[in-house]
Amino acid sequence: MDSLLNTDRPPVFCPGCAHERVLHALDQALIGMGLTGRQVVIVTDIGCSGLFDTFFNTHAFHGLHGRALTYATGIKMARSELTVIVTMGDGGLGIGGAHVLSTCRRNIDLTLLVLNNFNYGMTGGQCSSTTPRDAEVGSGFLNRLEKPMDICQVAGTAGAAMVSRVSTYDEGLVRHLQEAIAYDGFSLVDIWGICPGRYARQNRLTPRRIADSIAELPDLSSFKTLNDRMEYGRAYRQEAVLQDAPPDPVRIEPVFKAPWKGRREVVVLGGAGQRIVTAGELLCLAGAAAGCYATQKNDYPVTVMRGHSVSEVILSETEIEYAGIENPAVVIALAAEGVGRRKGMFGRLSPESMVIRALGVALPPCGATVVDIDFKSKQIKSPDWALASLAVLARENRILTMAMLKKALELRYSEGVLEAALTVVEKTNISRHFNIS
Amino acid sequence: MGLTLMEGNEAIAWGALAAGCRFFAGYPITPATTIYNTMLRLLPPNGGICLQGEDEIASIGFCLGASMAGLKAMTATSGPGMSLYSEQISFALGSEIPIVIVDVQRLGPSTGSATKGADGDIQFLQWGNSGGLPVIVLAPVDVKDCYVLTMQAFNLAERFRCPVFLAANKEVSMIRETLDLERLRLPEVLERRMADGREPFLPFAAREGRYVPDFLPIGGQTLVRQTSSTHGPDGYITTDPNQIALMQARRFAKISTAASKITCYDEYPVANPDTLVIAYGVTARAARAAVKRVEESGGKAGLLVLKTLWPVPEALIREKAAPCRRVIVPEMNLGQYVREIERILPGKTIDFIGQMNGELITPGRIQEVIQHG
């Protein structure tokens, strides 16, 4: 079978560069595996290792420094049949560290060849994440202050099963690459080599020294059993077919008539756990059941089960333009936290506005009509106060009717929960006896 | 008439699915997260892929790979994530990779306020890349737009082989709103134009009379090469100044000369207007209420709602502003798009209403400026 090297673009590495040996070894490996250029994508990033894609007659993707694994992941997920090989230097390894770790954890079927020559060759020999502390490099004393990274130990610890280290000058390099490429999952090969232009002139690095150094390092084969698991793409596809397609968005037909005309604004002010947002949604659904347009804006902190919860709902016969609250017809005040978030609003309320207040909640001075409700005496628990307030409004035919509310509950809740919600609604049956101040 | 209650971000996800999106990757960030959540429910059972990247850089990188492999791809984030997207956006622009990027703007700068809206990224979207090439930015006004403009964003990305931004805002994306899905006027779904497979395939050469190169996916029968580096039509690195200049000019021209085809807008015209309000995004809703109130009190203010922000619809703005003595530009920032309006309408009185405190600009405030300067 023919070489996959690009005869129009012969390699242009510095004389003696380790990369060129790896290039030919990779070509031999691919030929030996019977792969054609159409079946292979070489993904590279910046630097000398980034020249690899140019020298091959395969599909090629050359991207930003340290990001090669991100593109390779997208390509492999989109076309699982491709053999995707990523080359990266020790520079790309450092800048793209998070991607390396995550790719190890993911175990997607990519092969990462780390062309490790212990320095940033293309920019003048600065130190990288693998530069030994005693090396002389273009970064002055800085490399003496940092411990070099053993990428194989890092990758294995991060979850890569197929992790190996090999010298560029190892006679078994081709077979070594083939094993990595053939592995059904993520494989990483740390390939140590000499950068004659920027590193070897100041540092006495030889093939022999590389071989000796590698031989002294711990064996990596245990990661293969330790991290063995299904390839990510296959696992993904297995899970994906088990997922139920979500139903189409619910279409609410208008079957009722709203008990008002124009635009109505409702603000529900409560605390976390009071199902304020759900009440706002119920109001929107009720409005839609009467053919009204609705908007709902919510405001709550990022913490869960603590702090305020505010829902602002607008219902209108015509499409809603401005979705902010200007002149609320009803304010439901159920907790100090919610009232505190909108305290500036109360001074602007007119006598036409109605405030439904849970007994004991302090309000700023306001000119609205305030209706106090003692939910506790009706055995209505705090998480149901917002729903009960909607029921009170429905009994007064203010904002919504009881039929609209019940339709909203049917749309929102499944059977068991629906019954519980209707029980809450029933408990407000004596609303006319509530203390209206 | 039947109505559906839907969040803006959900509408973006459903619009993407309808446009043929089959790849989404994102990183959780308020207020964009519910796009990711919805795509995770929509894509896997529909034969698509939805991934969570280890960061924003990875998320958009996955999308660029998947797009080059032939899938329609989308990602979504907010301001802090857009900052991280920047290098990949430059790549997508320079290397003509179709992708839809949703920026659900939140109050900035920096980490800012996760749950407060603003339109603070409007200039950043155009200029947040290296190289200064034109970009396409669409801005939804409401949940309906979230659905329809997302579809249009895909169409434009495919047609022009480029990233297309949706400049949403927390106030549009996280509002729940009713819409009549059956009455939406949906655009026809477009696909990127494939090369006919003649060898050799030149991935960055446009056919005679065209600016947009034909496409072939990585992984097909014809070898395809993609590169972030300065390249010629063949996708190989080049240092030839003439070739570089031609490539830059073509990429520039493919967007800038098509501005009128990309322009999308809405208006509330009045006869013999004295004033024109030019608004976009959620602020356009307040502006519409304001000009109606002005009309009810006998005033003459029209409204132009820009749904394409970039490339700037200059001809449209000139045409609509021509009969007006004064132009008012309200924005949820401290003055960003108004710079474009001032540039396009020299000599015209332009009043800016800026606000960047996490609150909506009210109709009353716009009405006040229309009627009382």
The CATH class assignment of the largest domain in chain B is Alpha Beta
Tell me what the CATH architecture of the largest domain in chain B is.
3-Layer(aba) Sandwich
N-to-C SSE string of chain B, H for helix and E for strand: EHEHEHEHEEHEHEHEEHHEEHEEHEHEH
**Rounded average pLDDT of chain B:** 97
Strand content of chain A is: 15-25%
Helix % of chain B is 25-40%
Q: Unreliable runs of chain B, pLDDT <50, ≥5 residues?
A: none
List the uncertain runs of chain A.
none
Radius of gyration of chain B: 21 Å
GO molecular function, one term (chain B): oxidoreductase activity
Organism (chain B): Desulfococcus multivorans DSM 2059
Pfam families (chain B): PFOR_II, POR_N
GO biological process, one term (chain B): response to oxidative stress
Write structural notes for this entry:
Chain B: Residues 15-240 form the Pyruvate flavodoxin/ferredoxin oxidoreductase pyrimidine binding domain. Chain B: InterPro entries: PFOR_II, Pyruvate:ferred/Flavod_OxRd, Pyrv_Fd/Flavodoxin_OxRdtase_N, THDP-binding, Transketo_C/PFOR_II. Chain B: This is Pyruvate flavodoxin/ferredoxin oxidoreductase domain protein. The complex is a heterodimer of chains A (437) and B (373). Chain A is 34% helix and 17% strand. Chain A is built from 16 helices and 12 strands. In chain A, a hairpin with an 8-residue loop joins strand 8 and strand 9. In chain A, helix 1 packs across helix 7. The longest helix of chain A has 15 residues, at 18-32. The radius of gyration of chain A is 34 Å and the shape is elongated. The termini of chain A are far apart. Helix content of chain B is 37%, strand content 22%. In chain B, strands 2, 3, 4, 5, 6, 7, 8 and 14 form an 8-stranded mixed β-sheet that branches. In chain B, strands 11-13-12-15-16 form a 5-stranded mixed β-sheet, sandwiched between helices. Chain B folds into 2 domains: 3-183, Rossmann fold (3-Layer(aba) Sandwich), CATH 3.40.50; 266-372, Rossmann fold (3-Layer(aba) Sandwich). Chain B has 373 residues and is α/β, with parallel strands linked by helices. The interface between A and B is large, with 71 and 75 residues.
